[in-house]
Amino acid sequence: MKKMLAVVLIGAAASLLTACSSDYIMSTKSGEMIVTQGKPEIDKDTGMTRYKDVQGTERQINTSDVVQMIEKD
User: Fold this and answer.
1) What SS3 class is residue 30?
2) Region of residue 38 (left: phi > 0; alpha: psi -120 to 50; beta: else)
3) The pTM is what?
4) Which of 28, 34, 37, 42 is within CB 3.0–4.6 Å of 52 for a Cys-Cys bond?
C-alpha cells in the first residue's frame, strides 16, 4: 500500500512540474511556426537550438534559422 501511495505522489509531483514549464513558439526564416514544450536551449558551441516538439520528440534547428522566439501564454 505504501508503494502505491509513493508511486501516485511521484506521478502527481511530476505532473505539477511539467505543468509549470512554459511552451514557446519559434518562427523561422522559412515562415514555419514551431511550438515547443518548455524553453528551447541554445548551444553556442554548435550553433544549434535544441527543443522538444509538441509530441515530446527532441529536435534541433540551426539557430541562425530562428527569427523570433516568444513564450506562449
Assistant:
1) coil
2) left
3) 0.68
4) 37
